Every structure is written in structure tokens, then in C-alpha cells.
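Job type: complex structure
Entries:
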Amino acid sequence: MELWYSENQTDNVKFSMRVKETLFSKKSPFQQIDVIDTYDFGRVLVIDGWTMITEKDEFIYHEMITHVPMTVNPNIKNVLVIGAGDGGTVRELTRFPSIEHIDMVELDEEVVNAAFEHLPFTSSKLKDEKVSLYFEDGIKFVEGLENKYDLIIVDSTDPIGPGEGLFTVEFYKNCYKALTENGILVNQGESPYYDMNRREMKRSNKKLKEIFPICEVYQYVIPTYPSGYWFFGFASKKLHPVKDYNEEYYKSLNLKDRYYNSEVHKAAFALPNYVKELLEE
Amino acid sequence: MELWYSENQTDNVKFSMRVKETLFSKKSPFQQIDVIDTYDFGRVLVIDGWTMITEKDEFIYHEMITHVPMTVNPNIKNVLVIGAGDGGTVRELTRFPSIEHIDMVELDEEVVNAAFEHLPFTSSKLKDEKVSLYFEDGIKFVEGLENKYDLIIVDSTDPIGPGEGLFTVEFYKNCYKALTENGILVNQGESPYYDMNRREMKRSNKKLKEIFPICEVYQYVIPTYPSGYWFFGFASKKLHPVKDYNEEYYKSLNLKDRYYNSEVHKAAFALPNYVKELLEE
């Protein structure tokens, strides 16, 4: 018998991985959480039928969501991470010595439990002494905060289900207030290829532009997400992700990265015409 | 009833598109050729069960395979194209006024016939007066030629089946001789993600490096190929794809491109660490 997991990437597109075994399957109060072991991608976290991370290529996502902001401002001390229950974003952040504290707010404790048990490669730093874990709604967590974080990372699912409120103007306004004067917000910025993702990419970028003076998107290639072509949003009060990029600082850290390097940082902001047109429409 | 076309991207990975109808299906002396109409990708050319081009994203492939070499040398007059029976590469080349003549050598006339009938969006320039079509083996076609072409584009399938001979040292040597002193060879350079493609990407690059003094690879994202993350090889006698890039020349052409622009050209050569490591192994 062959076991396959198929993700319905659109109504008319399926991506399927051959499965060795199911390691974890649980319906939490918020969502269906599964961890499977696959032949080509190693362990895979699936939430509500959508691939969240795979052991094979999570390094791409997690290096890009963290290294780009962290190298634009070498003085980032306090970070808020919303979502990211698998722990990969926190793992990457703890590699930067400037960081004093990370607050991580994940709605669903069961995701973190599954990660502790089955995804040691991403969850390894969630118990680091610099990290405080909160199992709460990130939307409420940022309400009323002022001048507190140098960096906020919104490591969310798509804007359907529990992730929806993380794509609203009100939420982005609260993030703006919660940021320090050199503050940067990085968010999961969707994809320009399939219609549903295109729409959300455009909407999210438009809303951020209403609030932040500097607002760019940057690309990375992660083959296990629909189309493989995905973006993060970079919204900032003062610092520009390319003009203020601190290459010397990055080199001084001597990190052994698998995807990110200084050329990749700059190239990530070079957008194909069809992506530029989508954002300018 | 729902019709689906599934590509077995590896033994353990399938990519599936929902199909409206099959427009063409024929076994030629060389291979099985199908053209299908799909919901999300428009018309799709499939050879021996592998996706060759889709109406939705062929522009990415065809702009990148042509615009990168054409803008590095504004004096390209004579071009040889091997493979590319759908016609997309020739369509893009004819947009550059420097070109005087294109020889296109496609092994399988049936692919071109299918393209004329069902893929008008790529085959539109195959009858251009600057184009000579040869239905021959490209490997034999280049044997014994000297100082004839300013650019050779090897627009091949993977190195299995009829495409295999287009990935040999002997073939690359013949291409070198067939090129003029500023000659450039661009080839389908595979992908660094799945094992089979990784192996071929490395092998092809290694062989080209034995022959050409300048040898780089450049990336593009085409979601309908396995992993979505693909490369072309750029092998050249004298001109460097980034140092000799002629941005002013490109701008003067005023082409309305959908993917390519000057920033994309340069960024295409900025490789993630895992790709660099693969090529340096």
C-alpha cells in the first residue's frame, strides 16, 4: 500500500508527497494538526490540510524571515514573534548575539507540543532562556503596547481561519505603535502566482503601505509551498532593507547559513515585472 | 467526472493539474506528445509525461533563456537554437533587432506541428523570415561547424531520452568551436532541489567548466517545473553575464517584458549557499 498526502493548492492543483507514516494527528480547539514522515521531505507539519514546514526546506523560510531584518539593524534587542509554533523562527533569531529577549505568542499550544515531540530540528531553541512563550491571540497581545519591540515577526498562515486577523489594518497599526523608533515589521507576505495568494499578497502590501513609510516585499523560493514562489513583507519606520543593509555586520557574525548570504539579501528585493505590476495595480 | 494530469516529479512527489480536455495526443518516432487544456495553467505541452511549457508561465522561461545573453552582447547577429519545438525561444529572440538569422534545430517535427496547431502563443514567430527550421539531431548539426554563431541556446529536456546527448562534453566542445569569438552558450541547467535534478545540474556545470573560461548559472522561478526553482547555464568565451551586462542597451530596446528587467538579470546570478555548495562540491 502507498500512502500519499495531497495538498489542494488551488481547486485545480494538487501537490502530493509519498508518506512513510503519520507521527501525530490531533484536533486542537483551533485546528487540525498533523505531523507526517515523508520520503522526499522528511518530517512535515500540516495544519488544516496545508503544509506549514518540511524538514527538507524549512531552512529557506526561517533564514529569510529572520536574517533580512536582523542584518538591517544590528541593534535589535527585543523581538516579538507571532505564530511560528514550530519554533524555526526563534531558532534562527537566537543565532544573533544582539538579541536580549524574544516574546513568542502562539495561539495554539498543541502546535508547540507537537513540535517539541516531533520536530526537534525547529523546536530546539523554544526553551532558550531568552525566550518567553505565550499561548494567546497575537492580535490581542499587541493591543496597547508602545515602543517595546525592535522587531515584530508575523509568521502566520494564510489569511483564512485563525490567521485572518493578522492581515488587518488595525493589527498593523497596533504593531506600528508597539515598535521602537527604528522598528521593523516582517510578515508572511503570500505569493504572486495563484489567484487566491495574489489577491492576499496585494491586499496585505496595500494595508501596510497605509501605515509604514517604508514598505517593501522580498522573495524566496520554497518548493513545498504552492507555486514555490513566496514573499515576506518588510515594513519599517526608518530603515530601508537594501540601503541600510549592513553587510559588514553580517560578515562579522560568521554564521554558517544554508540559503541566506549578502548577495541573496539584495537580490531578494529585485522583483520581476509581473510582481511589481501586481503591487502597483 | 474530473480529469487530472499528474506529473511524477520524483518517485515520491506528484504535481497534478485539473484538465478541461486533451487537445492533441500522438506518439512520434521519438516520444509521446500531448497538449492539454487545463483550468489554472491554460494550454500545456507534455512530452513523455513531463510538463514542457504552460500557457500561464512560459514567459518566465522564454524571457530568461533569451534576454540574459542577448543583453550581454548587443551585437548578436546569428543564433542557433537546439530543441525548443514549441517556438517560445524563437519568439523572444525575434524581439531583438540585432538578430539577422536564427537556425532552429528540433529533432521532432511533430512537436512543431503540435505547436503550430495548438500553441499559437509560442509558435507565432516560427515562420518569421529570419528563421530557418531544421528537423534534425542538434548533436550532429553542430559537428564540424566553426566560428558561425554568436549565441547557441540549448533548450533541451532533461538528460534522459532524446535530450541526453545535449549534456555531453563532446557536444559542448563542438558548440565552443561553432561559436564566434564573443560567443555565448546558454543551456537548460536543471535544478538544485530534487536529487535527480541536482545531480544533472552539477554534472552539466562541471562539463561546461572544462571547456568555457566563463561559466555561470542563473536562476528563475517557474512553478510548473519540479520544485519551481530552475537554472540556465551561461558559458562564454569572453563576456561575463554580470560585468558585461549592458543595461543601457536593454533600456534602449524598450521591450515590454513580463518577468525580465535589469534588476532581475543581476539578481539571477546571486545564488543561495546551498546552490553554491552544490556547484563547488
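Summary: The mean pLDDT of chain B is 96. Residues 33 and 266 of chain B are 36 Å apart (CA to CA).
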